[in-house]
Automatic annotation (TrEMBL), chains A, B:
Domain named Heat-inducible transcription repressor HrcA C-terminal: residues: 104-322
UniProt protein name: Heat-inducible transcription repressor HrcA
Keywords on record: Repressor, Stress response, Transcription, Transcription regulation
Residue ranges occupied by any HTH deoR-type domain in the UniProt entry: 18-62
Family statement: Belongs to the HrcA family.
A Pfam family per the record: HTH_DeoR
Repressor listed as a keyword: yes
PANTHER family membership: HEAT-INDUCIBLE TRANSCRIPTION REPRESSOR HRCA (PTHR34824:SF1)
Primary role: Negative regulator of class I heat shock genes (grpE-dnaK-dnaJ and groELS operons). Prevents heat-shock induction of these operons.
Classification via SUPFAM superfamilies: GAF domain-like, Winged helix' DNA-binding domain
InterPro entries reported in the protein's UniProt record: DeoR_HTH (IPR001034), GAF-like_dom_sf (IPR029016), HrcA (IPR002571), HrcA_C (IPR021153), WH-like_DNA-bd_sf (IPR036388), WH_DNA-bd_sf (IPR036390), WHTH_transcript_rep_HrcA_IDD (IPR023120)
Species per Swiss-Prot/TrEMBL record: Aeromicrobium halocynthiae
Domain of life: Bacteria
Amino acid sequence: MSAEERRLDVLRAIVEDYVATQEPVGSRALVERHQLGVSSATIRNDMAALEDDGLIAQPHTSAGRVPTDKGYRLFVDRLSSVKALSGPERRAIETFLTGAVDVDDVVQRSVKVLAQLTNQVAIVQYPSLTRSTVRHVEVVALENARVLLVVITSSGRVEQRIVEIERTLGDDLLSDLRGRLVGATVGRRIPEASLRLAEVIDTFAPADRPIVTSVVTTLTHVFSNERSDERVAVGGTANLARFGGDFDGAIRPVLEALEEHVVLLKLLGEATIDPTVRIGTETGNDSLTGAAVVSSAYGSQDQVLATLGTLGPTRMDYPATMAAVGAVARYVGRILADG
Amino acid sequence: MSAEERRLDVLRAIVEDYVATQEPVGSRALVERHQLGVSSATIRNDMAALEDDGLIAQPHTSAGRVPTDKGYRLFVDRLSSVKALSGPERRAIETFLTGAVDVDDVVQRSVKVLAQLTNQVAIVQYPSLTRSTVRHVEVVALENARVLLVVITSSGRVEQRIVEIERTLGDDLLSDLRGRLVGATVGRRIPEASLRLAEVIDTFAPADRPIVTSVVTTLTHVFSNERSDERVAVGGTANLARFGGDFDGAIRPVLEALEEHVVLLKLLGEATIDPTVRIGTETGNDSLTGAAVVSSAYGSQDQVLATLGTLGPTRMDYPATMAAVGAVARYVGRILADG
DNA sequence: GACTGGCACTTGGTGCAGGGGAGTGCCAGA
DNA sequence: TCTGGCACTCCCCTGCACCAAGTGCCAGTC
């Protein structure tokens, strides 16, 4: 083993010990708990080098070392491998999620299971409307010149709107309209379906266009509904209290951030199907010094639906957390693809 | 002013000062800040009497006095009057809530406004299904022997289910079924509508009964949906950090309680249209020593829809909180009654 | 009888000094 | 390149004295 390799070994040991004990780790404790094959004096030299590289730091002169954000970054990138979940853990996720009755329920259960598994704050974005396809569109005439519009998406979400129109809709026109709407949208992704909708209006007789237009406009609104794309569920905030003093600031700004859904969506970040880790400033949120986010996209092979993840102290068990996030993402994706 | 009256005046002053300063209040500070017309020695005697009655307590021998739960109770019952909201506050509630687009939005906005107004944790229960009436029922035939069932309630909530039936539904039967379902349910309260539904099945020809039964059964399920009756929204948890050390325990058990919706519903308690206050053990929750709940039912005059309220430290501004809870409840009730 | 001024007493908080412990950096030697 | 040893630094805990705030009680006054 080269000296360079041993230095990285030392870093790994420091991260692991610090995560376990929450206390700065010194050279002596290190040689006692790990088989490094050298003396504490050597470790001290290595530590000095690691500190020069900005990978670890000392809270004060005569204290042990603590990993820096950069140190965690290196640990995640090169020194750790994703831990496999235990059988019972995997079964727990599966049985718990399988019991869900609808999309909302899936999301809420995912949040709960993820929070319990990781002992951190769990964040799950609702399946995106814009990323799923249209499974069904239904138009129903109600009394008093009103129409009920129902859209069912491939992720199982159901959206409905009531449209006021200028006169009662005849049965012929109704079924004609229904047929063309279905033809233009079903099976297509939402953004494409939106485009096709615009063409539908022109295929109707001029006399019918006002009515058709109000229905189509409402449908377009449903498709472009930003609000529902922003929906997220949060759970396990009680865990914040557990790692209380860890965040440089108080937990208050963190709780505030968790209530701002826009902030949360930024935190989850861009979708990748493998778990991504953002540490400290990498989260792009100033009030989250001392915090890290582990996130992953979920969906089926060819279709990303949304993102989920956890928020915890930088001092977290990255391998375990990444495993949990990855596993839950896979199960959620599978369930929503089936349903 | 009798001696007895002055004692209650002293209690009121202690509560007000303690709420304002968060520090035990002594006899000297009391005579300085209030026009009590007697010396600090007299106040000391009064305080000793109040302490004998269990209305105030000393953290330690040489400290000032702090109100006990019993003291707050007396204060709320006899010594305070509900503070009127300021004009800007009332206008803020109104404009903020008026912008809501649907029931979910109303609830979410209410939580936000209530949390901001009171600087406490806000809890809003979604309008109860069982307490509202049926506004509309719609049955739509989908492809592949499936039927879409839509229910719209008086509170504006829309529920939908897809029912698998054994064979495709003829147009005649469909409109017949729709008509009878509407006749049996629309305009009635959900529990009563449920009862009527049972009779509908028998009015159909035996051959049609299997299909009718599956639809009616599903509809009954929607009506008796307990899950949606349990839904609550929580906001302002960041305020917990503000009154941090106030709760006897840590904030952790409180955060945990806030994630358990069942616990929250118990906290909101039985519905009364005027703001109710529960202090300390009165909340019926052991982990909430040091906390108080102010809650109120909302709805129209003759119809209670659900409950909302706030959770804060016993050391809170009761008059202001009760005013805010009452005002938000009134506005929410009005908006949902109109919508 | 109710109120007041005065006084002794209690107690938590703060500032200060000293000792112990953990850990480091560095140096000389293998 | 590694190791043992040693001097040094700094945090943290403890004990101590002191102060401020507040009380309880008592004797005196209206």
